[in-house]
Write a structure and sequence with these properties.
Blueprint (H helix, E strand, L loop, with lengths): L2 E5 L2 E3 L5 E8 L8 E6 L6 E6 L6 E3 L7 E6 L4 E6 L8 E7 L9 E5 L2
Parallel strand pairs: 2-10
Antiparallel strand pairs: 1-3, 3-8, 4-5, 4-9, 5-6, 7-8, 9-10
Length: 114
């Protein structure tokens, strides 16, 4: 079955960096577009970044453009989210998702606070 396992979250100070990883299994990763979402309590889950199966195409939410970078390593079945210049408003639970499916990771907490 499909599994998506996130790691790399935690507590970081404003201006700091984190890299989230999502290891995928149970499907042909190299053919699959992937995305990262985030959610805070009381709000809808929002798309943060997405990448095509080939990794040639990416898209970002306006709020993270220039600060976050999504990449995909098809040899390692892993999608990454490099997050730089983090702000308190980036605090959320981050989820990895396989595009065009209802396959989600379990979520990982990112907290940006001094």
């Amino acid at each position: 079955q499909v599994q998506l396992v996130e790691s790399g979250g935690g507590l970081v100070q404003p201006g700091g960096s984190l890299r989230l990883s999502c290891v995928a299994s149970g499907f042909t990763f190299s053919n699959s577009a992937m995305s990262w979402y985030r959610q805070v309590p009381g709000k809808e889950r929002e798309l943060v970044a997405a990448i095509s199966g080939s990794a040639w195409t990416t898209e970002y939410a306006d709020s993270v453009k220039g600060r976050f970078t999504i990449t995909k390593d098809n040899d390692k079945n892993t999608v990454y989210l490099q997050m730089n210049s983090l702000k308190p408003e980036d605090t959320a639970t981050y989820y990895c998702k396989r595009a065009n499916s209802n396959d989600w990771g379990q979520g990982i907490q990112v907290t940006v606070s001094s």
